[in-house]
Structure formats: structure tokens, C-alpha cells
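From the pipeline queue, job 12 of 40. The input is one protein chain; the requested action is below.

Action: predict structure.
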Amino acid sequence: MAREGKLTGIRRTRLDLVEDWLDHGISAEETCKRLSAYNRSVILAVLEAHAEEYPWLRDCTFVEFGSGGREEQVLGSDQDNGLLMRADPDEEELEDVTQSIVVALDGAGLALCEGGVMISNPEWRGDFDVWLSRLTRWLSNPAEKGSWQSGLILDFKAVFGAPRDVLLLRDRLWEYVRTKPIAISLLIQELTDYRLPLSMFGAFITKKSGPWQGYLDIKHSVLAHLTNSTRILALKYDLLPHNTCERLRLLAEAGHISSKHQDSLLDAWEYLQLKRLTIGLECDREGIPPHNYVNPTLLPKEEKARLKTSIQAVEKLVRLVQAGTGL
């Protein structure tokens, strides 16, 4: 099916599903999980179709990183994937097949990753030992950090193929981070690389120039801090869930954050992701690519207050991680 170009309509179906879920009052948390599951079904269809022609693919595991690994995808989520290999196919065939897969996924609405985090890139393929060496090197070497942020390489899950080695890889990688001060310090550094977009006087800090002047990037300037801070605490306390909301609930249940702070963080996550989902639908109607920008001056009073409260809740979490984790 996938190889015959029959994925036409998948993109439209994805948009219609999200719109229907939100119209029926489904939460952003549940919508993102359903959307991520839908995207995985598309990936499975594409991989199964290719594996019929190239059986060696069944000896490999297709891995999803980042928001897909956390089940937190929105309409603008692109491809972040890798291939854990237990086969040794012809190099030219490997290049052709992996390129065909990512192109098919792009045609189905999972956009190509601008940073090249895809199985078509040799850096995102390899056997278990190669993957373990590569990921630990990226985590411990600031010069190589680049796009290989913790949000990508510490949150991942198997989509197609045997999951055993992927689970072992995740366990080994998380253990490495917990026991290597330099790796932990780099995760903390990521929290301070970007300033939260709220001044000490409570004013929103927006883009000063360019096409998004006056706008605020809710993904990179707010949501990333929430996701990364929660992950660091999950690492410290050895909490297994991949999903940010599930991690927050376990952190509160164990007493690592207060129940009140948990509620404010879950509300912040819900608001930010709902906003991103809504923006994605609006962009589709306008015929433009999805983005993560909002103009605070154009928001209704109540929504503006919710955005400010969300940023304050995230800032409190960041300070907790920076000052209270003993790092």
C-alpha cells in the first residue's frame, strides 16, 4: 500500500481526527496520545510494506525519538527516527530503502526533519553497540550537542521490530546519565540556554525582530523547559514513564513536587499543547505550515493570564531543578 502511493488522504484524515477530538472536548493530553498512536500506525504500514520487499527490515527496529517517543505529537511534529540494526544489507540497498521510507512518511504528513534526524541519515542507523557509543558521546561532548538535545536522544521507543534492544539501550543510556556528572550538567545547562519569556515585572518577552516580531515561541521558550526539567527529575528518581504528564503525576505522588505545583504544571502543559494543536488546525485552513508562535497582545484577557501563569509554573520547576537536585 505505502509503496504504491496509496497514502494519499492520510494527511487530511489526521487533521480531521484532531479537529473532531478537540470539538468533542477531548483533552490535549489524550489528543496528543491518540495522534501519536495514529502516526505510529502510519509508520507501521510504511515499514510493513517495505519489509515485504526487503525482509531484512524485520531484523531491525525502527525507533521514534522526541515527542513521538513521549506520545506528545502535535500536527506540526516532524520525523525524528532511527534504525537499530541487526542485519547487514547491501549499502546501496540500505540507502535506497531508508530514503524511500522517509519520503513515504513525508507524503503521509510526517514532515522530513530539517535537522536530518531520520533513518536516511547514516548517523541515525547502527547496531546496539554503535547506538550506545554514539548517544553517550553526544551527551558527554558539548561540541557535538547541536540538534542532539536531550529531548531527542533520551526519549525514544520502538515502533516497528523487536523492542528488547531498544529498552535495554534506554536503560543503559539513562544509567549513564545518572552516573556521569558531565552528562547531568549538560542537561541542566540546556535549561539556562534559553530564557523564559517573562520579565521580572511580569511582561511577556517576545521576538524583537524578523517575521515573528512581537510573537512568543511557546514550544522552545516554555514547553521545552517543562519537558526537560521533568525529564531530569525523572532521571534522578528513576521514573520509567516516557510521557511528561505521567512523569509529573509520579513525581507528585512520590512527594518530589507538591500536588499544587503538579496541578499548575499539568494545566500549563495542557494549555500549551492545546494551543499548538489549535494553531496547527488554523494553519491548515490558511494553507501555511504549522508553527509554535503566539502574539500575547492578541490573546483574550483570560488566555493571556493563563499563558503567564503557565510560564510562572514552569519557571518554578526550572528553579527547583537547578537549585534542588544537588547538581
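Job complete. The chain has two domains: 2-179, 186-324.
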